[in-house]
Write a structure and sequence with these properties.
Distance between the termini: 63 Å
Number of domains: 3
Largest sheet: 4 strands, parallel
Helix content: 40-55%
Number of strands: 7
Radius of gyration: 22 Å
Strand content: 5-15%
Number of helices: 21
Structural class: alpha/beta
């Protein structure tokens, strides 16, 4: 049999058969890890993406045989712990993804290993807490609680205690918690929205845990930008967490539960003629890729997948149909723009850069490297230093850009860059940049 080296065909992510009896079988999981690790050992092109690959290669190189068979299978978990499911290895580096006959999907193998470990042993309480973002963020945003939480985040004594007792690194960048939802920008009466080739002209915005409790201003900015473009935009109520943190933990039953809670909310909006959108690339990715691969035969999941858009993907589509508002009032100057990993792997192209570049007297420097925040990875005591190491090149590139404004489609990535710069400047979401350019 002839084995092809690499693949010239488009990669294909395959359904995740997580409800099959063998999916969580430890011997089967370890056998597949050994097979894939052996291929990775011979390739090594992903070594600069994250800590998972250097961890693997160090284990191999320091073994007696200098091959995978010299690595204790009990150490495989050290590799799995360093994967935060950014998907960049699969989508930008690996030549052996299906349809290649080796059928390697490293992130989804890591997900399988995480899910198996989740079944075998109860996660530590910290990990259960910080991945239950809906409940945790709601609690920390409550009156009286948010003032304490925000104040404690600034006290070194409290942060040190939090590191010792909870494993939250004392220097990790933490979000600010807001109280009641800010009132969204008033909905202006619109003429009948004009549909484009791919867009309905109506958008229901999924605020997400982060937009609801940590950065409500960006949600308001998105609503204003959409309405300024003649789009009938509303905010979705009653939706819960997308469950990306649960996915990273390997809690697939938790992902299923959140999916079941959100589908009726999303489907009602779709039935009313609305497209769906979020300010968080990870949340969009969950409903465009991860949940459809976990539930490949669910017709409702497929409907939601088709309806979800990235904000700038939507605006570029409207522009190509001659429907975008290009009447900009203010230049943005030099912009250092970080492309979020979970946006890049959606394969929609450089839409944020493309639309921001339409603003007169604006120069966009695009940065395509991981910010190092990666969900909960940057806040944990055991991985904070690794996260800062990953972020270092991005921080350097932002600093070297000498930009007037910097930010990322992912607010958490923006906060990580701001944390790394530590110069008193603040990251700005590209949607907020656009609102400023419109002068609205």
């Amino acid at each position: 049999m002839t084995i092809k080296e690499g693949s010239l065909e488009a990669p294909r992510r395959e359904p995740i058969d997580w409800q099959d009896a063998d999916f969580h079988d430890r011997d089967a999981v370890d056998a597949e890890l050994a097979r894939v690790f052996d291929v990775c050992h011979g390739c090594r092109r992903c070594v600069n993406l994250c800590e998972a690959f250097p961890t693997l290669f160090d284990l191999i190189d320091e073994s007696d045989t200098m091959e995978v068979d010299g690595v204790d299978r009990g150490d495989y978990g050290k590799v799995v712990e360093q994967c935060y499911l950014c998907d960049l290895c699969a989508e930008t580096k690996c030549p052996y993804l299906p349809p290649h006959e080796w059928r390697i999907d490293f992130p989804h193998l890591m997900l399988r290993a995480k899910a198996t470990r989740f079944k075998e042993q109860r996660p530590r309480w910290r990990d259960r807490l910080i991945t239950s973002t809906g409940l945790t963020f709601s609690t920390l945003s409550a009156p009286g609680v948010r003032q304490l939480a925000n104040g404690a985040a600034k006290l070194s004594v409290i942060r040190g205690l939090g590191e010792r007792l909870a494993g939250i690194h004392r220097d990790a960048p933490l979000p600010t918690f807001h109280g009641r939802r800010r009132r969204a920008a008033a909905r202006q009466p619109l003429d009948e929205p004009v549909a484009g080739e791919r867009t309905s002209g109506r958008v229901a915005v999924y605020a997400t845990c982060y937009g609801e409790h940590n950065d409500p201003q960006v949600v308001e900015d998105l609503l204003c930008v959409l309405r300024h473009n003649g789009i009938d935009a509303k905010r979705l109520d009653d939706a819960t967490c997308c469950a990306m943190p649960k996915l990273e933990l390997g809690d697939l039953d938790g992902v299923a539960a959140n999916k079941d809670a959100n589908l009726p909310v999303f489907l009602a909006a779709i039935d009313d003629g609305y497209d769906l959108m979020s300010i968080i690339p990870s949340c969009v990715l969950m409903y465009r890729q991860e949940i459809p691969l976990l539930f490949p035969d669910d017709e409702d999941v497929a409907r939601v997948k088709t309806a979800f858009f990235d904000p700038f993907e939507y605006l570029v589509a409207r522009r190509r149909d001659g429907l975008a508002n290009l009447d900009f009032k203010h230049p943005l100057g030099k912009v250092a723009y970080h492309a979020a990993c979970h946006q890049r792997v959606q394969a929609i192209g450089q839409r944020t850069r493309e639309f921001l570049a339409l603003v007169p007297d604006t120069e966009v420097t695009m940065i395509e490297r991981c910010s190092g925040h990666d969900g909960t990875y940057a806040v944990k005591a055991e991985t904070y230093d690794k996260a800062m190491k990953i972020a270092r090149p991005v921080v350097r590139m932002v600093r070297d850009a000498d930009a007037d404004t910097y930010g990322s489609d992912c607010p958490m990535a923006g906060r990580m860059i701001e944390h790394g710069l530590d110069d008193g400047t603040a990251a700005t979401h590209p949607i907020s940049m656009l609102r400023r350019a419109y002068g609205i």
